[in-house]
Amino acid sequence: MQHSLYKGGLDKEIIELFKQTFTDSEGENKGVVIGALVKRFLENTPKKDIRVFLTVEDNLVVGGVIFSRLTFEESMINTWLLSPAAVATSMQGTGLGQGLINYSQDFLKNEGVQQVVTYGDINFYSKVGYKPITEEVIPSPLKLTYPEGWIAQSLAGEDLKPIKGKVYCVEAINTIDLW
């Protein structure tokens, strides 16, 4: 298995990985929604605001994670959002997802990213360093349906830096039904 920063040419395979993984775990409707989200990310997000990381085995995309830039009215803290992440159903439970996220975060840290946030399962993401936060620490771009899923970590080896004021996500994920 090899983790890497995505450089192009596999959009269809990436979209299908996310669509199938979410279909398997949460049903066909969720698979379609996440597949469409990934397509929007890949087609419409400026390169400076997105990083896509993949795991490939035997020329098949078996893991993927997308990070996108968050911007704040009152802060210059370099913070990115991890969402979504997918591992092929047959490869889940092998540590592949943790390895890919750790690889991705090391890459982002080397690019100067200070903090990462996600909106997901604390039982999984705590394995790669995420801890629950409140919106008083880092506000979310849109209203959270499950505030307990708002989690973050510092990549700078220090405590999270609280952020005040309005936060903006990239357009691909700026839709209330995803939050």
TrEMBL record:
InterPro entries cross-referenced by the UniProt entry: Acyl_CoA_acyltransferase, GNAT_dom
Gene3D superfamilies in UniProt: 3.40.630.30
Transmembrane segments: none
Pfam families, A to Z: Acetyltransf_7
Domain N-acetyltransferase: 1-147
PROSITE patterns linked to this entry: GNAT
Identification of the protein by name: N-acetyltransferase
UniProt lineage: Bacteria, Pseudomonadati, Bacteroidota, Flavobacteriia, Flavobacteriales
